[in-house]
Design goal:
single chain, mainly alpha, about 90% helix, rod-shaped, transmembrane
């Protein structure tokens, strides 16, 4: 019975450590994706603004 409890406790400790490490990696990946999305939206918005400013007046 002690072996089973020791294996279970070891498994819980290892799982906790892996979750702590994976949180940092997931956060880093999320930050990179957010930066890429912001850059893409900024590029698209700037392109539309320039295209709008270059149109002849429609008065």
């Amino acid at each position: 019975m002690d072996v089973v409890v020791a294996l279970f406790a070891g498994s819980v400790v290892q799982t906790g450590g892996l979750l702590m490490e994976s949180r940092q990696v997931i956060g880093l990946i999320a930050a990179i994706l957010a930066a890429m999305l912001a850059a893409q939206l900024g590029w698209h918005g700037t392109d539309r603004l320039i295209a709008w400013r270059q149109r002849p007046d429609e008065d």
